[in-house]
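Team,

Forwarding the record for the chain on the shared tracking sheet. I've put the sequence and predicted structure together so nobody has to dig through attachments.
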Amino acid sequence: MAVVLAVANAAAQPSGTVNFGNHSSSRVINGQTSLPVSAADNVRAALYWAPLASSTFIQLGATVPVGTPLPGLYVGGTRTNGPATPGGSSAKFQVRAWSGGYATYETALPHAGILIGQSAVIINPTGDLWGSPPAPPVSLLAGGLFSFTLTTNAGLAQPPTLTCASNKTVQCGTAWAFDAPTAMDGCTTNSLPVYVLNTTSNGQCPQLITRAWAATNSCDTNCTTCSQLVTVVDTTPPVLICASNKTVQCGTAWAFDPPTATDACSGSNVTLSVVSTITNGVCPQVITRTWTATDLCGNSNVCAQVVTVVDTKPPVLICASDKTVQCGSGWTFDAPVLTDACRGSNVTLSVVGTVTNGACSQTVTRTWLAADLCGNSTICSQVVSVVATGLPVFLCGTNKTVLCDTNWAFDLPQATDPCSGEMLPVAILGTVSNSLGSCIQLLTRTWIATNACNTNIATCSQTVTVTCSNCPVIAVTKQCPPWPVPPGGTLAFTGTVTNTGNLALTNVLVVNDQPAPNTVVFGPASLEPGTGAQFGASYRVPPCSCGPFVDTLTARGVSPYGAVVTSTFTTTCPGTNSYALAGDLNGDGIVDQEELNAVLANYWASSPWLYMTNPASLGGGFFQFALTNATGWNFTVMASSNLVDWTTLPGPAYPVYQFYDPEAASNAPVRVYRLRYP
């Protein structure tokens, strides 16, 4: 809200009075005369304000002549000559006065020789609640405004003299520094401290670096700056060093050695490129590579490395391994494998000679020669031994089955020499008999034949299965449970093993392949012919499986003659993916005592005397049990579905405890509980 002047009382004001409300709000004293300011002093005043949290004052309203018979000052059109009235939020207020005819206090402040001053800061409620700027208070006297004295203004101090060195040019990579400036106080002519204002860098070739300094006079009222420009130029090429020339063997892995490039200005930021790679000659081969290095300012340098590639190694000639062939068979020499590290396949291969030695045991040797373009050569040979090592061609009769009460005989084999094709004599090597039970016998006869030189022997065999009609027989069956088995539940099954043969069986066993191979579910026992026995067993299925569950029963028995007879039976029992009732492990819809004991099993191994008794399912996931010998002890109940991941249930467990498991309430898989102390 603006401060306005209005006519209210034309009576003359006392000398030195600033009227803010038709009465003397304050008296302004001339510090030169120690008397109140008169009209001749040409002093004006204004009211300033600032928020409580700020030190920045702003003029509020128009200026007022001091000591001049003028009407009183009205603020915002409100009456100001009454008592102070409560305002809204408080603010800071101050009266400032000055001479010289300047429009504002701020414009008068820099001028020397004038009268200038300000009252104490008054904290007073404003004339309204939310104004910004606020309505001034109706009276400052109530806030404690008193007289204040104007003093002669000294004006602004002279700025210091700051002298920077001349601009200069330096070579990149050399040690250089800015030249320090000098500063002198404009009032005292004393030396002043200089501080760096900023340092800026522009460009690259050249690089222009400017540093600005500043100095402030002793009154901290005037600041002077200056700067120096340093031009950094780069006219020196990079240092490029190539590796020494070298000689390498043709065919070996080699490479040019990269040169080293450095630059005093650009460091490692130098562009290295291959200018050319020139190859001359064959034996030897001379390869020259030239590089160039260029820095960021375009300065460049070149160097080269010469690599001499020599070929002093012969080709690699690998003949096939010596071999033995059968007389009369079609055979040839195996071609050798030829490579050259330098020439690849551009190598001449020729046969030097083929030499045959021997008659019955004949050896044939062939030699090859390989030569490359540089005159290096090598040889290799292959030896083929031609021998009569082929086995006689032996043909035995096929295996057959006969009855034990019939006349039968082995079938005679035939043998021929593989080289001459002549028939060879055969002889019986042996006959082996094996019994498979009481009425099955395997008879195997083996014959032998030798070639004409008596150096190679061949055999062949025929097996005859001799059977009888009176044999022991065993059978086994299995019945699945009448309900689907839930995950982690119990698969309880029944079965029957029967001796269906004509001979008594002893040491009768029935084994299952679940939950582990050869799990005994019946026996050992004895069964007379035509009799059988019933059995039952169960096992826990995996907690993560919903079925179906497949297992195989195997029944075994021993006949009076020591023959072992077997029979197998495989079934597939259905499964389910949920529990009809929490804790029902076998899926029969009933949680019996054994299942509850399994659900509430105690796994607190450090206290074997602490266990759960009288477990009871209250339904809906609620369980209750008692802790024996646990009077005065409090425990935590933990639940798990896999004995690995445990969840702590809320609340402590007392000697008689009832707890709730939300997982069990939602028909989760098998849940196991344990205690933890505390």
